[in-house]
Amino acid sequence: FQQESALKELSERVTQGLAEAGRDREDIRTELLRALEAARFGNSSCEQCPASWLPFRGSCYLFSIPPASWVEAQRSCASAGAHLVIVNDLDEQDFVSRNVRGRGYWLGLRAVRRAEKIQGYQWIDGVPLSFSHWNQGEPNDAQGREDCVMMLRTGMWNDARCEDKERDSWICEKSCSSSWICPPPLIFFFSYQPPCPSQPGPVPALGDLHSSLTATAHTRTYLAFTGSKIRAPRPVI
Known about the structure:
Elements: H1 2-40, E1 54-56, E2 59-63, H2 70-79, E3 83-84, H3 90-98, E4 104-114, E5 117-123, E6 148-151, E7 157-160, E8 168-175, E9 186-191, H4 209-212, E10 219-226, E11 229-231
Parallel strand pairs: 4-8
Antiparallel strand pairs: 1-2, 2-8, 3-8, 4-5, 4-6, 6-7, 9-10, 10-11
Organism: Equus asinus asinus
Keywords: Lectin
InterPro entries: C-type_lectin-like, C-type_lectin-like/link_sf, C-type_lectin/snaclec_domain, CD209-like_CTLD, CTDL_fold
């Protein structure tokens, strides 16, 4: 009986540890992406965004996890002072598509329909569609019911039924607040756990930063920007 109790306790501790590690990994991923975007655009996107939001060219973006209908997604964005994402050009398309995580996401784009026929598409702010990134064969308005637009896991666009809430998550976008203050040009991430805790392992190269997100968090390492490149000072234990 004591052995079973000990195994149960160990199992619960492992489960809790894995859950905490998963949350830490998402926090690390968010901070790292913020830093990389700031470096890429000369620190022009360094404005503070709310927790879990990613910065890009003066806007903040939230990539949701649970699915919802298009209307529900827009309502959720509005409650956060935002709107469904508006993709203006290829740079913004690249940023958004880099952050999709194996699922579809609603965009702030809908069809303009007159006399049961689609006349075009416009963004949620009323601006007609100019830049687009449609998947091959799209939009096809299957069964005459696909009025909303979503981004596939590949980053390509697809028209879909607005009421579909079993499949698609959503992306919110809002402008950075002028009251937010740009932080110092320092960021941190958690490096690999070294074989011996007293001997920190090497800091991953820039190309390995993405893979390090899945490693066990152990050593807090500060990174400083040098122009558009990133250098890593001595690890702080």
